[in-house]
Amino acid sequence: MAVNGAISETYASVLARNPGETEFHQAVNEVFESLDRVLEKHPRYVDASILERICEPERQIIFRVPWVDDRGRVQINRGFRVQFNSALGPYKGGLRFHPSVLLGTVKFLGFEQIFKNALTGLPIGGGKGGSDFDPKGKSDAEIMRFCQSFMTELHRHIGEYTDVPAGDIGVGGREIGYLFGQYKRITNSYESGVLTGKGITWGGSLVRTEATGYGAVFFTQHMLESRGLAFDGLDVLVSGSGNVATYAIEKIHALGGRVVGASDSGGSVYDPAGIDVALLQDVKEVRRARIDAYAAERDGATYLPGLPVWEIAREHNVQVALPSATQNELDESHAKLLIDAGVVAVAEGANMPTTPGATRLLREAGVLFAPGKAANAGGVATSALEMQQNASRDSWGADYTEARLAEIMQGIHERCAETADEYGVPGDYVLGANIAGFTRVADAMLALGVI
Ligand code: GLU
Question: What DSSP state is assigned to residue 266?
Fold first, then answer.
């Protein structure tokens, strides 16, 4: 079959067979748009129906999660685990607890994860899971009961050599603790490698918490270097104020850049002197409060209720932007603001935060653009390092682990840049990431036969 026919027919069948799952469609389309060159060059992928196979999860698990709230009422949520592709290793990917989570959300995230994990060069397949549970406003005891109920079903589907979940939005160290505790209790085994993002004293890895943010900054550093630039002296906007955003800000400041805005789902803060990371962490992580509390306590900072952080680009020129909150948070109007404000590099700290239209505008304007599957792969890569430590019953020092992370991010950057060169589109990180990720998985699938 002609290459374009194979791509458009497979995409049409993805739309027909997964109705209403718009984020999943978007994620598939973004990868497919990069593949015509690679399929022309290697028709064996078309012959073996790799496109159709790669879009069909190996297994999708949906389950009821009943739990009792603090007032004694029974609550019901829905749990998901999509085991998408295990050609390269055990399924690997986080759990997201957020009221917006539907099967299509988990499928989009799982699909992205396949290629992201492949890009790390490490032996991990792709999967994702989560629930429509809303952690906001829940007590610690409610979170624990929910996690225990969630794991009571999930435990039978996961394992160190099968499927290794971790955190994502709404799932951090506290939740991983409760999930691991219940897994350990049910299975009567201390199988450390079954979950990553664990606490340092019970099998976790140093630098895992910081890894996604640090990794996104390392990747951006390499992109900037390709144009003879560095973070020193640059002004930056970072959306979000979770794990990814917080540690990206910390690393940018360490490299001499200045992050003048951050946000949460309620609004943004503009802090022209540069975000105070310790205060941000205290507000968001310790007090679990909203970001307006940051502005209230910080001299010179302003709170912009209901506004995305990109609005700050109207007032303040920025050279770098790291969307690190959630999917489709940076649209065409925001891309225009950033371009007018002089942005030279955009790197996705979150999964698919830039809409297709915004991505097109940024790329057309010659902005260096790093897709999430390359830029935010440092988190899952350090999860794989945590699995290595667990398997060898070892724990590494922070400097060594960060050096490994930096090396992996450099490798991902090289893989993307070299692949873009090879396919005649130098500097196109979207194409480079999609093709390099796809070919690694597709070659393994070919080798393993029709399974
Ligand atoms: N949720 C993270 C991601 O989007 C990390 C997954 C993991 O560590 O397994 O890559």
Answer: T
Cite the active site residues. 128
Task: Name, in order, each residue with C-beta under 8 angstroms of 71's C-beta and a sequence gap of 6 or more.
Answer: none
Q: How many whole angstroms from 378 Cα to the centroid of ligand 1?
A: 9
- 56: closest CA among 80, 98, 86, 76? 86
Q: Which two tokens stand for residue 211?
A: 């890894």
- First and final CA of the chain: distance in angstroms? 22
pLDDT digits (tens, 9 = 90+) for 416-451: 999 999 999 999 999 999 999 999 999 999 999 999
**From CA 242, how far away is CA 244, in angstroms rounded?**
6
Ligand 1, atom 8, lies closest to the CA of 380
Instruction: Give the HSE-up count for residue 26: Cα atoms under 13 Å, Cβ half-sphere.
Output: 19
Residue 3 has what pLDDT? 76
DSSP letter string, 17-50: HSTT-HHHHHHHHHHHTT-HHHHHH-THHHHTTH
- Side-chain half-sphere exposure of 315, counting CA atoms within 13 A: 12
CATH 3.40.50.720 boundaries in the chain: 209-375
Q: Pick the residue whose CA is nearest to atom 9 on ligand 1.
A: 93
The segment(s) of the chain belonging to CATH 3.40.50.10860 are: 57-190
The beta-strand segments (E) located in 160-313 are 163-166, 235-238, 258-264, 267-270, 302-305
Q: What is the H or E stretch that residue 244 is in?
A: helix 243-254
For residues 321 and 350, the answer to whether their CB atoms sit within 8 Å is no
Which stretches does DSSP call E strand in 43-188? 59-68, 74-85, 91-97, 126-131, 163-166
97: β partners: 131
Question: How many other CB atoms are found less than 10 A from the CB of residue 281?
Answer: 17
CATH architecture type of domain 57-190: 3-Layer(aba) Sandwich (3.40)
Measured between alpha carbons, how far is 192 from 147 in angstroms, rounded to an integer? 17
pLDDT digits (tens, 9 = 90+) for 123-153: 999 999 999 999 999 999 999 999 999 999 9
- Ligand 1 surroundings by CB, under 6 angstroms: 92-94, 166, 168, 196, 351, 379-380, 383
CA-wise closest residue to 42 among 442, 445, 451: 442
Amino acid at 132: D
62's enclosing H/E stretch is strand 59-68
pTM: 0.97
CATH fold for the domain made of 209-375: Rossmann fold (3.40.50)
Both tokens assigned to 63:
């389950």
Specify the ligand 1 atom closest to the Cα of 167: 1
- Residue pair 55/82 in contact (Cβ under 8 Å)? The answer is no
Integer Cα distance of 266 and 331 in angstroms: 18
Rounded to 5 degrees, φ, ψ at 330 are: -120, 105
